Amino acid sequence: MGQLKQFKNLEIDWDMTPEDAVGLYLEWGNNGYGGSYENRVKSKNDYSNYFVVYTWDEHPKVCLVRRNSDGAEDLACLMVPDKLLGAVRKDMGQLKGVFPVNEEIRSWLEQELYH
């Protein structure tokens, strides 16, 4: 793997969800992340780096996303290892979509990033 190691110094918002990212960066009347006005988006220079689980394809993948008010960029995408497919299906079932990472996926990502 090792693809994520190049991002080990990147500030990751582990609490950011796809829904929160849309609300923070794309919705009118941006009211701040987590209800805090200190965290509201002030310019296109404000961005978040966060992970999502992408289940639109046959085999789920996890993507590191950078988002600002202009859009989103996938910095890296990794296929979910077979040993973690159960962790993905546990929370998402067979639903197709974009989901936040769960604890098992986060632990794996932290290993890939920092060790």
TrEMBL record:
<dbReference type="InterPro" id="IPR059223">
    <property type="entry name" value="DVU0772-like"/>
</dbReference>
<protein>
    <submittedName>
        <fullName>Uncharacterized protein</fullName>
    </submittedName>
</protein>
